[in-house]
Amino acid sequence: MSSIPGAVPEKPPVRMSSPPLVHLQSIALTFGGTPLLEAAELAVAPGERIGLVGRNGSGKSTLLKIAAGLVESDGGTRFIQPGATIRYLPQEPDLSGFATTLEYVEAGMGEGDEHYRARYLLEQLGMTGDEDPAHLSGGEARRAALARTLAPEPDVLLLDEPTNHLDLPAIEWLEAELRSLRSAIVLISHDRRFLQNLTRATVWLDRGLTRRLDRGFGAFEEWRDKVLEEEEAERHKLDRQIVREEHWVRYGVTARRKRNVRRMADLADLRTKRTEARRSVGQVRMTASEAETSGAQVIVADGVSKSYGDRAIVDDLSLRVFRNDRIGIVGPNGAGKTTLLNLLTGELQPDSGTVTLGTKLAVVTIDQKRAALDPTLSVTDTLTDGRGDSIMVNGVPKHVVGYLKDFLFQPLQARQPVSALSGGERARLLLARALATPSNMIVLDEPTNDLDLETLDLLEELLGDYAGTILLVSHDRDFLDRVCTVVLMSEGEGRWVEYAGGYSDMVRQRGEGVQARRLEAKPDDKTGGAAKAAPAEARRKMTFKEKHALETLPQRIDALGRDIEKLQAVLADPGLYARDPGRFDKATALLAKAQADLAATEEEWLELEMLKEELGA
What DSSP letter does each residue of 123-163 carry, written as one string? Predict the structure, then answer.
């Protein structure tokens, strides 16, 4: 995959005076009695690059689906320029009914499209085109869907989180590919650098309404803050006006009141306007509870090595981590970043060498799978370990509902089970619990998953002020730049090299970013190139048991997923516990077991897929 320096030059932007290819006007949509969209607008001219931004749950994905014609709005109009071609990238693609991924991608192309692009895009995304869609992981299905969306080079691309499940090489390749296209693009993403590099206009969806800035995402946040400040000033002005009118009502001359019926009506209107005003969603307020200061040396690794079969994950690594270091661990998918993290924290023992942890260490971990959350516990019990309604934050007791409000939870959610939360809410709950735990080292494995941009900003600020050591695995270039003082980079074959600074500093020092992991040696390898890159299958082949498991585990995963959906539907009944507590307890226990089984099965399948990739099976 190519990196940005070698990308095809971006096509010149098209002037805004061009008539729109897609035009949504006054779009309204209500879910469950609450308006999600009230008067949303979206106009996409030829060649435009628009970032669609907003808080989690604001309706961005829904608005994109309305533009794609997949969801019908309650009100407003949708106009598509006759003859314009539109392609939409869903977050959960459906590949059923296709024999191979190549067939799936080609099915999305028309007669005049260049069909070579189907296989080209799949290969650039790390696939062959021969994969059976029934046996794909969620990440592979997303990659295939991305290839299908891009292959026809349509007039309009509607992309919902296109970088999900992509590693750094794939993200930078995708960025270059999109810059080379003439298609208009509407993009939803939590990757700040991706948005900054691609967008030329920004549409902000907030409280059911849209505002447009005819500049890229780089200028958005300053503009948004100014808008919110002006809105707050108007609110204060309205409050003062109401106070003045109420004073007149109470103390004005009685004889004049009959002549001022309209003024009374105006006061009622002001009160209604103030009551119904939809305030901006609050900001997450994060504070990390600090433990006793750790020793000066936090981690000492001497000659550490770890392999799986013939594959070296870490080879003879020696590393010193000192108090207050901020270390980012980067590399392509499959490089072993999480394995290295587990070695450095003592969660995994090396094959050889030693890892010595410093004194007085108090570690909290935020992992990408949210595995630390028990889906059967309530939100309150998750934070308090079942001990009442208060939580200690920096040695001070705080009511759990008030603490949850700091992380944008509603009071009613305090008693909900974790299983009822969205992905973004689970991410915030995990942050809330981790940050309440006294620590002097934070370990973060892909912490940016499911977090919106505002929450990411505040997490970055917290980590910047954190009086302790940070170990971070992330594919988010901007997050790495803002947080890290050292980058530990995978150079292949188990070698890890330290670079001072953040991700951009590492790129400047190396002359390139993270490259896709390859099994063969580089052409200029002084050790003999092809002789060193002998086919892995000549050394080892998959056993019959491993092949059978790889073929059957996807069906097991699907079955567990269906069981979980059924159990969640049972538990969604708000009156079940009062009506039949025994059934509620049984369903809760079965749900926890099914979710644990699903996690274990997915892990087993992933390990076999990695083995298959290594052996070239």
Answer: HHTT--S---GGG--HHHHHHHHHHHHHTT--SEEEEESTT
